[in-house]
Every structure is written in structure tokens, then in C-alpha cells.
């Protein structure tokens, strides 16, 4: 099974350490990480996942369907530069895979606003991670935001 491990470049250090531990725990159970190589949360997940990862960057080949999600889910797609559009399209591939047809089972992330796309909507504070959250939520994929202490407690019970 695949999962997306993403989040803010400004994720606190203790959360980064927990993300790495989560990714290692999941890798030991044959889960495959999808992420985007950004500093912060992405890197923490990648370090924990070892070889069990699929990493999508703006330099990765981007599936044409991924670009369609930018206009569909970004709140201001016309304001995005070409490079930022590519980054937002990359987020769709973190959720749906390189073929845009293999969704993740869940998303684990951290954003300052605690967005999960359902009970807590994305805001400007969600940053680029908000795009992945909106795409996942629209598909009914559960988003676990580590800004929520209840989510952290729930995951710690399994991972520790």
C-alpha cells in the first residue's frame, strides 16, 4: 500500500523526528511512501522510508492529468507561475501515483493550521501541502495532520 508523507518546510523538529519514525515503522510493514523531496516534512519521511519510496519533484515527468488538478483544486490557479503549477501538479502525483490511477491509502502531514480537508479546511497557512490535502479529501482519502494532538496520540499507540 502507498501513503503520502508531506508537510510544511517549517515543521517543528520534534514532529520531523516523529515523521521519520512513522515512515520507518510503515516501511517495515511494506508501505511505500510518496513524497516530494522538499526540505522539512518530505525529507523526514524520506529518511525514514529508506528504499520504500516514490519521490515526485518538479523535475519529474508530470502526467497531463496531474495538471488538471491544479485548476480543479487550487484556490487561485491563475495566480501561479509555471514552476509553481508544476509543484502543485506534483502534489496530485503524490496522491495518485505516476500513472494518476493508483491512490494512496492515507496521507500523513503537518501544517500550521492543522488542515485535514474535511473537518479542518485548508487555509493560506497550509501552503503547498494544502493542494495535496484538498486532492486527497476530495477523493475520500483520510488525512492525518500531526498538528492535531489526538492524531499524534493515536499514531503513537501504534508506532511506539
Please give the structural blueprint.
Blueprint (H helix, E strand, L loop, with lengths): L1 E4 L7 H16 L3 E4 L5 H9 L3 E3 L8 H10 L8 H15 L9 E4 L19 H10 L3 E4 L3 H11 L1
Parallel strand pairs: 1-2, 1-4, 2-3, 4-5
Question: What can you tell me about this protein's structure?
Answer:
It is a single chain. The chain has 160 residues and is α/β, with parallel strands linked by helices. It is 44% helix and 12% strand. The protein contains six helices and five strands, in the order βαβαβααβαβα. The chain has helices spanning 13-28, 41-49, 64-73, 82-96, 129-138, 149-159; strands at 2-5, 32-35, 53-55, 106-109, 142-145. It has a five-stranded parallel sheet, with helices on both faces. β1, α1 (13-28) and β2 (32-35) form a beta-alpha-beta unit. α1 (13-28) runs parallel beside α2 and α4 (82-96) crosses α5 (129-138). The model has no long low-confidence stretch (mean pLDDT 96).
Amino acid at each position: 500500500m502507498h501513503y503520502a508523507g508531506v508537510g510544511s518546510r517549517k515543521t517543528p523538529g520534534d514532529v520531523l523526528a516523529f515523521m521519520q519514525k512513522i515512515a520507518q515503522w510503515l516501511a517495515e510493514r511494506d508501505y511505500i511512501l510518496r513524497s516530494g523531496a522538499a526540505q522539512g516534512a518530505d525529507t523526514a519521511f524520506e529518511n525514514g522510508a529508506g528504499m520504500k519510496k516514490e519521490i515526485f519533484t518538479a523535475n519529474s515527468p508530470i502526467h497531463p492529468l496531474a495538471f488538471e488538478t491544479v485548476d480543479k483544486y487550487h484556490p487561485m490557479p491563475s495566480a501561479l507561475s509555471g514552476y509553481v503549477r508544476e509543484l502543485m501538479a506534483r502534489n496530485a502525483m503524490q496522491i495518485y501515483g505516476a500513472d494518476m490511477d493508483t491512490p494512496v491509502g492515507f496521507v500523513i502531514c503537518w501544517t500550521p493550521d492543522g488542515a485535514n480537508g474535511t473537518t479542518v479546511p485548508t487555509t493560506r497557512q497550509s501552503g503547498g501541502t494544502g493542494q495535496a490535502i484538498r486532492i486527497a479529501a476530495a477523493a475520500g482519502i483520510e488525512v492525518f495532520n500531526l498538528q492535531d494532538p489526538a492524531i499524534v496520540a493515536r499514531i503513537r499507540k501504534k508506532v511506539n
